[in-house]
Amino acid sequence: MTRLKGKTAIITGATGGIGEATAKLFLEQGANVMLVGRSLDKLQGSLERLGASASLSHCVADAVDETATAAAVAATVKLFGGIDILFANAGLEGIMSPIESIRMEDFETVLRTNVLGVWLAMKHCVEPMKKQGGGSIIATASVAGMVGFGNGAPYIASKHAVIGLMKTAALELAPAGIRVNAIAPGPIDNRMIRSIETQFVPEDPDAMRAVMFSKIAMGRYGTNEEVADLVSFLASNQSSYCTGGIFAIDGGYTTA
Ligand SMILES: NC(=O)c1ccc[n+]([C@@H]2O[C@H](COP(=O)([O-])OP(=O)(O)OC[C@H]3O[C@@H](n4cnc5c(N)ncnc54)[C@H](OP(=O)(O)O)[C@@H]3O)[C@@H](O)[C@H]2O)c1
Asked: In this predicted structure, what is the pLDDT of residue 1?
């Protein structure tokens, strides 16, 4: 399938499970892809797995470093001639702990990365997208942006904020032809969910997995590839009437 042929995408959190799977699918679908990550080592690992090509490049930028983020956007425009798609996906789960025991700096790290990081990527992609008459921005929220759960205050607050940011951007940017949507994955089978399992039940993370499965109508975690398919739809012209939407991909987790 070549539904992204001729489009250029910038992906943050590209070295993670969802980001790299999305980069792989975007490349298969004909897009140029700029991988953005904060670790050069991890970026090099992703590049090796994805395979060198003229359609693929990378930039090192911490999600909360505005200068580096602006430079990554500028490098993308210089190399590929513009930006059609932003997948603002970098994020971290942070500490899972009761409200009264969370340290200020731990809460701040999650908010800065998950909220300011998404905003900064959006901020610097707006102008190039406007210049070429439109684009598609997809922000990674979570089911944690739609419902709460105990011991997850920083993550829950940050992902609710991503939804608010997405809604504001969708309203502001619709006249410029820029669509803005959020994805809300449920538990996805990768590093992040393993960290969450381990934080909740350090002595038996598999037991936590069983509890999670029992809360999901489909009785399993999602895969990075399933999320990538949704992101590709939102990135493509096939979602041309979608903006301001929260697209759950959670096996029915938020349905009950
Ligand atoms: N996995 C799930 O169950 C799940 C569910 C709902 C939503 N999500 C969301 O999906 C997104 C992608 O996560 P994932 O599931 O693919 O987990 P992951 O494998 O842990 O990927 C997270 C990515 O974000 C990057 N990142 C974290 N902090 C950063 C920073 N300060 N600057 C730049 N990059 C940073 C990580 O880079 P490093 O590797 O260098 O740390 C990594 O590339 C996140 O926003 C997450 O909240 C995940």
From this structure: 74
Annotated catalytic residue 155: yes
Q: Please give the residue range of the domain that contains residue 79.
A: 8-186+223-249
State whether the Cα torsion 167-173-174-179 is positive or negative: negative
User: Which CATH number covers residue 132?
Assistant: 3.40.50.720
In a domain, 227, yes or no: yes
Whether 195 is covered by a domain: the verdict is no
pLDDT attached to residue 230: 98
- Per-residue b or e along 197-231, where b marks 16 or more CB atoms closer than 10 Å to that residue's CB: bebbeeeebeebbeebeeebeeeebbebebbbebb
Catalytic residue among 155, 221, 241, 253: 155
Looking at the CA of residue 113, tell me the nearest atom of ligand 1: 31
Is the Cβ atom of 188 under 6 angstroms away from ligand 1?
yes
CA distances from residue 227 to 84, 87, 129, 199 in whole angstroms, order as listed: 19, 12, 24, 24
Does the global pTM surpass 0.70?
Answer: yes
Whether 108 maps to a domain, the answer reads yes
Lateral strand order in the sheet of 246-249 = 56-60, 32-37, 8-12, 85-88, 135-140, 178-185, 246-249
For residue 205, being part of any structural domain is answered with no
pLDDT of residue 256: 82
pLDDT-flagged residues of the chain (< 70): none
Whether the CB of 222 sits within 6 Å of ligand 1: no
